[in-house]
């Protein structure tokens, strides 16, 4: 019985972990899409749109919106460089460890 409970727990944990990775993966694709749509047109507007996106998606989760904004502050130039060098959103998000 204990073994069965352990297996169920492990299975549920694996599903939850995969779901979280998929959630962050999808969100990474959304952020890259915002960057691709606005960066060359209006760089400051890109940052504002991304900050607003962080508030909308993570604002109800404690300090997650602030962490999202910090991540953008830290990695935005790197993401733009990768996009300019022909990287796909999938490759960038995988490189950032947000997708498998």
From TrEMBL:
Gene3D superfamilies, per database record: Saposin-like
Signal peptide: none
Any Pfam family matching the protein: SapB_2
UniProt-recorded name of the protein: Saposin B-type domain-containing protein
Organism of derivation: Pristionchus pacificus (Parasitic nematode worm)
GO annotation, cellular component aspect: extracellular space
Domain of life: Eukaryota
PROSITE patterns per UniProt: SAP_B
């Amino acid at each position: 019985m204990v073994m069965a409970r352990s297996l169920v727990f492990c299975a549920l944990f694996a599903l939850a972990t995969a779901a979280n990775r998929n959630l962050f993966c999808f969100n990474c694709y959304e952020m890259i899409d915002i960057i691709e749509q606005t960066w060359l047109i209006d760089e400051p507007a890109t940052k504002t749109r991304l900050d607003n996106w962080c508030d909308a998606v993570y604002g109800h989760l404690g300090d997650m919106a602030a962490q999202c904004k910090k991540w953008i502050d830290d990695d935005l130039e790197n993401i733009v460089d990768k996009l300019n060098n022909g990287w796909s959103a999938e490759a960038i998000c995988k490189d950032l460890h947000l997708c498998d």
